[in-house]
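Assess this today:

___
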Amino acid sequence: MAQAYCGPAPVPDTLMTAWNADLAAAALCAALVAIYVHGGRRAGRLPLALAVAVLLVLFVSPFCALTVALFSARVAHHVVLVAVVAPLLALAFPERSAGRVGLAALVALHAATVWLWHAPAVYEIAIRGALPYWAMQLSLLGSAFLLWRRILSRHAGTGPALMALLATATQMGMLGALLTFARRPLYAPHADTTLAYGLTPLADQQLAGLVMWVPAALPYLLAAALLAGAWLERPSAPAGR
């Protein structure tokens, strides 16, 4: 695991010193701010600031190094990326007009992206080297951003948006269930990095599955509740005579 993008797997005693001077992450944050300023936007400053802050935590803080040691940390990293950072960016950069790609296609694209990068053989390649690592991170974030932006736009419609949220939470839950109930460890890069944290590789994988199964669904359920509540509060059209 010494070749992993975030550096060698830390042990608990060295974790808090494992900060990552990631120029790519800094460039990503700077680019987001530059795009926002160049667009002359007035709304969305708080979501953008929160998104940038969370991105720095994900890629610069010791959390990045922890993902090398624990697959469960990697899954939590991805969950925060697609279910926290992506909707914040969707609020900062809202969809101005209806896109050409349908909502169902965006749901399918994001689901395929999530499942692809968590396939064991693909995952093992993705965490080594800057190019595959950032291909994984940017495709996860990008597909989630496009999906959340459509869901949160006025062009989606409440019904389709709720179905998209339910479908996304369901497919992530299915992947989480597969990881939780797998009978053997599937991710070779973490075969000898979890024991320092008191977890066997299988227990770490099961914890990752639970993270994707339960906590990952909460942002989607919260968004669904807010959308449904807003829809119920809309004044009904007067009945025709």
